[in-house]
Design brief:
The protein is built from eight helices and 15 strands. It is an alpha+beta fold. The chain starts with a helix and ends with a helix.
Length: 269
């Protein structure tokens, strides 16, 4: 696994150099499906570099990446890549964006790295070996009082087909007086749950490349990740709830039950 880790970190850092070089510079910006669903030429350059590095060591491995889609191979290994998670932030000179690369074996996450070169923060996790930030071990927060939780969320470019509009769920949280942030990068959101800056994160309609690395980083930092039914998580799910584990059930109930409040939660047996 050390060789795989070496390649993962090399690809992550090389893409990070490209992102940092062009940050707040000049580059072409286009738009994908959905309003303000941006893509830049830097996304493409970073993705090309990542794939170049991986293929130079493991040409037989499968790859799924945001911009090029899936490159299938007859291999149990799959690299799941977002060359820039938080492209809108990047395009506007906001330094909350990152490279996110996960590696799965038989669809089970084995390693993940998330790198924000502008903040010099490299998160990494390996299955069964914990999670780190710049090589220092990290853990989720120990906060169990839900009324004191600090949360983060995001909104999709295309709203999912659901019984409720995601904004209604967001409203239920903020009506409790809880601080809820919206950073614009799901990978960073997950990593900041993993290191205890946030206590919980939820979002609809994410793709595997948004969350593959961050999911493993949260779980290896001692957190819990499920879908909105509380079921075991897959990076291909379209509902993501990641917490420190201590406030997970409270968040599930507010997400699922219209009108639920902190007061009524505390009254339940």
């Amino acid at each position: 696994m050390e060789d795989l880790k070496k390649v993962l970190l090399e690809a992550t850092k090389e893409a990070g150099k490209i992102i940092q070089h062009y940050f707040q510079g000049s580059f072409l910006v286009g738009n994908k499906e959905g309003i303000n669903n941006l893509v830049t030429e830097v996304d493409t350059m970073a993705e090309t570099k990542i794939i170049e590095v991986i293929k130079s060591y493991y040409p037989e491995h499968s790859i799924i990446s945001e911009e090029i889609g899936e490159l299938k191979k007859d291999s149990p290994y799959k690299w799941i890549i977002d060359p820039i998670d938080g492209t809108v932030n990047f395009a506007h000179g906001i330094p909350i964006c990152c490279v996110s690369i996960g590696l799965s074996y038989n669809d089970e996450m084995q390693m993940g790295a998330v790198y924000n070169p502008m903040m010099n923060e490299l998160f990494f996790a390996e299955k069964g070996k914990g999670a780190t930030l710049n090589d220092i071990p990290i853990t989720v927060s120990k906060k169990s009082n839900f009324e004191k939780a600090c949360l983060v969320t995001g909104f999709p470019y295309k709203w999912p087909e659901a019984k409720e509009h995601p904004v209604k769920v967001f409203e239920r949280f903020i009506l409790q007086g809880l601080p809820v942030r919206r950073l614009g990068s799901a990978a960073i959101d997950l990593c900041w749950v993993a290191c205890g800056r946030f206590d919980g994160f939820w979002e609809y309609n994410l793709s595997a490349w948004d969350i593959a690395a961050g999911y493993l980083i949260v779980t290896e930092a001692g957190g819990r990740v499920t879908n909105f039914d509380g079921d075991p998580y897959s990076v291909y799910d379209k509902q993501t709830l990641a917490t420190n584990g201590l406030i997970h059930d409270e968040m599930l109930r507010i997400i699922k039950v219209p009108g639920t409040t902190v007061a009524t939660l505390s009254e339940e047996v």
